[in-house]
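Open question from group meeting: does this chain pack into something compact, or does most of it stay loose? Before anyone orders reagents, we agreed to write out a predicted structure and look at it together. Recording both the input and the output here so the notebook holds the full record.
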Amino acid sequence: MGAIVVVGSINMDLVIHSPRFPSPGETIIGHGFMTAPGGKGANQACAAAKLGGEVRMLGRVGNDAFGSELSQHLSGTGVNTADVKAVDDSPSGVALITVREGENTIVIDPGANHRLTTADIAAYRPQLAAADLVVLQLEIPLEVVAETVRVAGEVGTPVLLNPAPAATLDAEALAGVSYLTPNAGEAAALAGRPDPEGGISTDELEHIVGTLQQMGVSRVCVTLGGDGVAYTREDGTVLRRPAYAVTPFDTTAAGDVFSGALAVALTEDRPLDEAVDFAQRAAALSVTRAGAGPSIPLRSEVDRFEG
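Structure tokens returned:
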């Protein structure tokens, strides 16, 4: 079992189900309101821990009720929270999530997540050096992401980056990423291509992936929702795998579960084909359940799942 360090966001998700997404200025009646631990960093850390990884997290929460609950949730799933600190000058991050027929819209207030600094990363160098894999997202300041990639490169630890939400990332930082796990829109944004709304052709996908590889990324795994995943093999070709057939209920954390599961499989030295399949099975199970943190499956469930 490999050691995984997650540097990233920790949020409380405020979720409501709705018959449709409201138009500007419109009020509609929803149902099923719930609060659930989330944040891309925390989701990926919890996913990796529940799926068998030895996980340590660096992050920030507010010195408030949400912060206490979020820290307890992380530790309860097996994540080492010694480096999750509560700050007094910002509230815990929150995400407002509307779910409609399995799809969602999300608005985030980063709050305490943006109190993570490059100085924190410099002090965290020994932990990065001791890890087998570092996992990152883009819900913390981009300069902190870039510094983490730089330090990880200096100490020889590979980096898995889930570039979400979509943002322009420093070219040097992107070149230091070993595994990139964007969705189609995020991959297109990083490659400087138009957002492929309504699907993406194999030719366009190969062009996007090729551009990302030319920018220095070693391996790219593009998640395509119900259309599965596309990833680069050792010979540089792009292989597409269909999604497992499930009925989605809430897709909120599917990409996070995929990234967390992939991290575990990679630190177990699985071949990439096998690692991607493991991540797909975990993500497929997650979309059949409500919420972000609560939707993450156990290792035993993923091992049994056949789709």
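Observations to bring back to the group:
The mean pLDDT is 92.
The chain has one domain: 3-11+39-92+111-295.
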